[in-house]
Amino acid sequence: AAIEKGTFQHFMQKEIFEQPTVVAQTLRSYLRPLERQVALPQMDFDISRIERVTIVACGTSYYAGMVAKYWFESFARVPVDIDFASEFRYRDPILPPGGLALFISQSGETADTLAALRHCKANGQTIAVVVNVPTSTMAREADLLLPTHAGPEIGVASTKAFTCQLAVLAALAAHFAVKKGRLSAEQEAEIVAHLLEAPACLNAALDHDAEIRAMAPLIAPARDVLYLGRGQDFPLALEGALKLKEISYIHAEGYASGEMKHGPIALIDEAVPVIVIAPSGPLFEKTVSNMQEVRARGGKIVLISDAEGLAEAGVGCLATIEMPKVHPLIAPLVYAVPVQLLAYHVACVKGTDVDQPRNLAKSVTVE
Ligand code: G6P
């Protein structure tokens, strides 16, 4: 049956709104809610013996991999290398025997990622893939297939596949940590409980749609937009900038908040909106001081944070978007929603072709 937009104006919009459902659907196949345990598919290798992980992907899938690097390293204490697929083979990567190579791809067909997969296979790596198309080439060539259950994604700019990738990667990181003896049953139960909160928190994030639509005209005239994030929110800044570029054709850059003073700060003036992605928490104070640096130069800030963060630093912002207070593990999933919606509504203000942006393809099958 043909996939319809229903009451939505664009497939991208529909796919953004499907996230609570498809993330729940994806989590269902990786968690045992009653036992409060993660449940990964059968593996014919011993994951507890993996000493190193190599993550390779492109585009939005690459940013999901960047978040996963934080999780694998902090939970399982396994060092992770991550590369753009188009760069990977050409740096002659060191692939020690017994390593796990993880490929993330919505389509499972991206040529650079597939070439990297085959390179890793030829070099004795165990191949795990997180893909949304279970019949894809990558799925067929994997030792371990970890499907996302996002359903067909039609909009060229990836949205629901991203949050589903994050859901799978969080479960994999937790499983990895359990097998490495780094998480007690109690800690595992806690992680599972937080993951199960994700769909409701995604819904709460979607409740801000009208508010984000109302602020889109403030961003639409900009020539450049800067996105800032720290720690696991840095990849979200990159993803926010990518979404805006892809569909609104506004030049946008994602930067690590603390790195702003080493360059992008030179660009800041009243005409460059700065989108700050910063849930409250141990890193928040540092980000607040980065925001002051922006303000001192006349920069206009859109702060995306929770009630606590907004109470502390929301005054004087051009706009704020309030997210629910969430556990850090699910923050990247939840904060993906406002950056997707912001890009979407800005593109609508500009009247671009949201689902089929110029020069872009859903799946890039040439290297
Ligand atoms: C293209 C799409 C992006 C996607 C990237 C990677 O550039 O436009 O939305 O993130 O490919 O695709 P993959 O299917 O490998 O995730």
TrEMBL record:
GO molecular function: carbohydrate derivative binding; glutamine-fructose-6-phosphate transaminase (isomerizing) activity
Documented EC number(s): 2.6.1.16
One GO term (biological process): fructose 6-phosphate metabolic process
Sorted UniProt keywords: Aminotransferase, Cytoplasm, Glutamine amidotransferase, Repeat, Transferase
Entry's Gene Ontology cellular component terms: cytosol
Main location class: cytoplasm
Domain of life: Bacteria
Catalytic activity: D-fructose 6-phosphate + L-glutamine = D-glucosamine 6-phosphate + L-glutamate
Cell location: Cytoplasm
Active site per database record: K362
The keyword Membrane is annotated on this UniProt entry: no
Stretches assigned to the SIS domain: 43-182, 215-357
Subunit structure: Homodimer.
Function: Catalyzes the first step in hexosamine metabolism, converting fructose-6P into glucosamine-6P using glutamine as a nitrogen source.
Protein's name in the database: Glutamine--fructose-6-phosphate aminotransferase [isomerizing]
Organism this protein belongs to: Alteraurantiacibacter buctensis
Lineage, uppermost ranks: Bacteria, Pseudomonadati, Pseudomonadota, Alphaproteobacteria, Sphingomonadales
Protein encoded by which gene: glmS
Span covered, complete protein: 241 to 607 of 607
